[in-house]
UniProtKB/TrEMBL annotation:
It comes from the Bacteria. PANTHER family: D-ALANYL-D-ALANINE CARBOXYPEPTIDASE, D-ALANYL-D-ALANINE-CARBOXYPEPTIDASE/ENDOPEPTIDASE AMPH. This is CubicO group peptidase, beta-lactamase class C family. It holds the Pfam family Beta-lactamase. Residues 43-331 form the Beta-lactamase-related domain. InterPro entries: AmpC-like, Beta-lactam-related, Beta-lactam/transpept-like.
Length: 440
């Protein structure tokens, strides 16, 4: 749910591929074996075709303290993929003529600024202008593990104010989908958890999907972790805060079942599905357009605490893919690209995670603060024994792996830092871009 920080974020250029009904499962297993060997990912992936699972793989532990291994039924928080469920539930209400896309939210939230101009469609499209309460990260991280009432969350959102006038631009905001969650509760006159269960979970027989509560390892629910040399338990956001913006728990098996049913028109009406898929600005309604080679797909991604998730559906081939994770020391987008490349019979590489040994003395020549004329950030390089650590302005520190020849990487975000000690320079590479930094 909360937006993930990296040294610098770039748009991903997606590549093209063609579809094949059969694929090399042995190579894909070898890919995941490599991730497991080098402690790069804990979680599960599933691919389905025509509603039938054709590949599933699970790595790591649901709970490290209890040494509870994960399996295909381990349940993970899916973060902002919850928004796809919430959007579908809103269209359920629209199909039942309880609400409409063009009605304003004034009836529900008279104290929200511009409530008389913001429509339900604006919320769905992230075009309301309402400030994202997770963007105030320093404050948010002080209270995100504590229960909050609707009244308290409305006060927080009201304090955040408006970033732009309604329907003038697109800007992703968790506040939009929290408000939609409250609208659903007021419209159906029941808690969000019951609405989800009644209209989606039970009709589709999603046996491992529900609105989260306190994580319960006895129910095969995963805890989440950050990698800091080893796995460290992450904080646990109280689900009263995100609700339908990021509070749902599921498995990739349930997610491919849900996405297949949704895009086959079995969850909401075909007219409502068409509206969900229509992009306005940057976004559809609870889904994003995901082109992959010459195929047009739709899906969403999510992250909350140490959890990460993504799903995508491609009508051509009727392929549904989902990933849920509770620990990443690697770029999950690379995992998705590998899985889909395998399924669609395209080339991909099994990564080489071998690292070069560096003495603590060797690292000294790289230490310092680097600045660039191209990017308005500074990057401070420190060390922890034999590990180099980078921290950009206003962002958390990340631990780098050495690839030798003065090159260091951070796999999770696809970052490469190449040092030239004699020139006191460093090159940041990410997403096909390069930026030169000079030591101050």
């Amino acid at each position: 749910m909360i937006k993930k920080l990296t040294l610098f974020t770039f748009l991903t250029i997606l590549v093209h591929f063609s579809f094949s009904q059969s694929f090399d499962k042995i190579k894909l297993d070898a890919y995941f074996d490599t991730l497991a060997k080098y402690n790069k990912f804990m979680g599960s992936v599933t691919v389905a075709q025509n509603g039938h699972v054709i590949y599933n793989r699970t790595l790591g532990f649901a709970n490290l303290k209890e040494q509870q291994k994960a399996n295909e039924n381990t349940k993970y928080r899916i973060g902002s993929i919850s928004k796809t469920f919430t959007a579908a539930l809103i269209f359920k209400a629209i199909d039942e003529k309880k609400i409409s896309l063009d009605q304003t939210i004034q009836k529900f939230f008279p104290d929200i600024k511009n409530a008389d101009k913001i429509t339900i469609a604006n919320l769905l499209y992230h075009r309301s202008g309402i400030h994202d309460f997770t963007d105030d990260k320093e404050e948010y991280l002080k209270w995100h593990t504590q229960p909050k009432t609707e009244k308290e969350m409305l006060a927080i959102m009201s304090k955040g104010g408006i970033d732009f006038e309604p329907d003038t631009q697109s800007d992703y905001s968790n506040s939009n989908y929290l408000l939609l969650s409250y609208i659903l509760e007021k419209t159906f006159k029941m808690p969000y958890a019951q609405i989800l269960d009644k209209y989606i979970v039970k009709p589709l027989a999603l046996t491992n999907t529900f609105l989260g509560k306190k994580i319960n390892s006895k129910n095969n629910e995963a805890s989440s972790y950050h990698f800091e040399g080893n796995w460290k338990l992450a904080d646990e956001t109280d689900i009263s805060i995100p609700l339908g913006a990021g509070g749902i728990v599921s498995t990739p098996i349930d997610l491919v079942k849900f996405s297949t049913a949704l895009f086959e028109g079995k969850v909401i009406s075909q007219n409502s599905l068409a509206q969900m898929k229509t992009v306005n600005g940057k976004y559809g309604m609870g889904i994003l357009a995901i082109p992959f080679y010459d195929k047009a797909g739709f899906g969403h991604s999510g992250s909350i605490d140490g959890f990460s998730a993504t799903f995508s559906y491609f009508r051509d081939g009727n392929i549904a893919y989902a990933l849920t994770g509770n620990g990443a020391n690697f770029n999950n987008n690379s995992i998705s690209l590998a899985v889909l490349s395998a399924v669609f019979n395209k080339e991909y590489q099994i990564p080489d995670f071998k690292t070069a040994e560096q003495s603590t003395t060797d690292l000294n020549k790289h230490l310092g603060t680097y600045a660039s004329t191209a990017i308005p950030i500074k990057i401070t390089i420190t060390k922890d024994n034999t590990t180099l650590i980078a921290q950009a302005t206003g962002q958390p520190a990340i631990r780098l792996s050495s690839k030798g020849n003065h090159e260091f990487i951070f796999e999770d975000a696809g970052i490469i830092l190449s040092f030239n000690p004699t020139e006191s320079q460093m090159i940041l590479k990410q997403g096909g871009k390069e930026f030169k930094f000079t030591k101050e």
